[in-house]
């Protein structure tokens, strides 16, 4: 058949025919690549225990990712806590780059391992799909500190804090805030934010610092903890009497104690698959119904393009590197 085509083909007609055949082959190959994904259940890796803000947000967005992905594939959220987020991140990072494994991260906190040189992953090589939300932090005190001020905390010989490792924005932000404010703080590791908050409610630790959405039940609904200050430029409408760090004179802390929840896939994700994910992720995070549900749970949606997310992550690594010596001090 090829011989017949070549015999009958000559000059411009031959070139035109070959171009048509080439385009047809490429188009077929592209369509075939697109149709190959997704071809099985997708695993959404969550490097922390169930019950906290990351678990809630991850499970909230899954139905909307399914909605916008071709074929509405099944997506399973898999909690893989441990190693200060590293176990889950490594599992996602080393998974086959076929689009069937993604994971949520915590920035700038997850940059700690990379800055210290202990990470088995490179945040700048992850295939970033976008960002879900931005998080405002609140410092809450045990009730035994009732009617106490920041000055009282500074005078205390030691203040204990319930943290989930230093490779989370909560843990990292706690030691940085204590250092900047002159509070003699001792971090007490916990398996998850829920456990740390319960410790503060019991009075086992003095101070916890977590997202507003995570602490709302304890500081507003039940008043089990006392909100001390909030990491924002202006006061929160639900905490009108709680000062901001800017009011307290530590506005620069907002550069490091503001958390993002980006989602990524393993390095080397094929461009065709990445484009499918990017499109679905953008539509999911901008879905009006999803955004309304997030707001009802006090989560602020903050969609980012893959390029914006990559730039944010790169900047976070640079910012965390400024506190390397302080982090090493608390790891000793």
Report on the structure:
- With 332 residues, the protein is α/β, with parallel strands linked by helices.
- It has two domains: 42-134 and 259-331, D-Maltodextrin-Binding Protein, domain 2; 137-255, Periplasmic binding protein-like II (D-Maltodextrin-Binding Protein, domain 2).
- The chain is 46% helix and 18% strand.
- The protein has 14 helices and eleven strands.
- α3 links the parallel β1 (42-46) and β2 (75-79).
- α3 packs across α11.
- The longest helix is centred in the first third of the chain and has 25 residues, at 11-35.
- Mean pLDDT is 89; it is low at 1-10 and 12-34.
Write the layout of secondary structure elements.
Layout: H1 2-8, H2 11-35, E1 42-46, H3 53-68, E2 75-79, H4 86-93, E3 101-104, H5 111-116, E4 127-135, E5 137-141, H6 150-155, E6 159-163, H7 169-181, E7 185-189, H8 193-202, E8 207-211, H9 212-221, E9 226-230, H10 245-248, E10 259-265, H11 271-285, H12 288-296, E11 300-304, H13 306-321, H14 324-331
Parallel strand pairs: 1-2, 1-3, 6-7
Antiparallel strand pairs: 3-10, 4-10, 4-11, 5-8, 5-9
């Amino acid at each position: 058949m090829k011989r017949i085509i070549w015999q009958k083909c000559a000059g411009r007609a031959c070139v035109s025919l070959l171009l048509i055949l080439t385009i047809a082959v490429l188009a077929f190959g592209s369509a075939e690549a697109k149709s190959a994904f997704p071809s099985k259940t997708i695993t959404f890796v969550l490097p922390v225990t169930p019950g906290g803000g990351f678990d809630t947000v991850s499970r909230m967005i899954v139905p909307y990712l399914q909605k916008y992905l071709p074929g509405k594939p099944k997506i399973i959220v898999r909690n893989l806590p441990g190693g200060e987020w590293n176990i889950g991140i490594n599992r996602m990072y080393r998974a086959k780059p076929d689009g069937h494994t993604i994971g949520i991260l915590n920035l700038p906190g997850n940059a700690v391992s990379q800055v210290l040189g202990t990470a088995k992953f490179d945040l700048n090589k992850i295939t970033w799909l976008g960002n879900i939300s931005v998080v405002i932090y609140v410092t809450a005190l045990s009730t035994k500190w009732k009617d106490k001020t920041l000055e009282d905390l500074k005078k205390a010989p030691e203040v204990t804090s319930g943290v989930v490792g230093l490779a989370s924005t909560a843990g990292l932000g706690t030691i940085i805030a204590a250092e900047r404010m002159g509070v003699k703080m001792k971090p007490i590791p916990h398996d998850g934010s829920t456990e740390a908050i319960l410790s503060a409610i019991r009075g086992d630790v003095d101070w916890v610092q977590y997202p507003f959405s995570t602490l709302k039940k304890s500081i507003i609904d039940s008043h089990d903890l006392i909100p001390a200050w909030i990491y924002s430029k202006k006061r929160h409408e639900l905490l009108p009497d709680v000062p901001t760090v800017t009011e307290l004179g530590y506005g620069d802390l907002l550069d490091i104690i503001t958390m993002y929840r980006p989602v990524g896939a393993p390095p080397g994700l094929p461009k065709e698959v990445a484009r499918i994910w990017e499109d679905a992720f953008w539509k999911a995070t901008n879905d009006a119904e999803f955004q309304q549900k997030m707001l009802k749970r006090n989560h602020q949606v903050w969609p980012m393009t893959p390029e914006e997310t990559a730039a944010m992550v790169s900047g976070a690594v640079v910012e965390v590197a400024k506190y390397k010596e302080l982090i090493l001090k608390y790891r000793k």
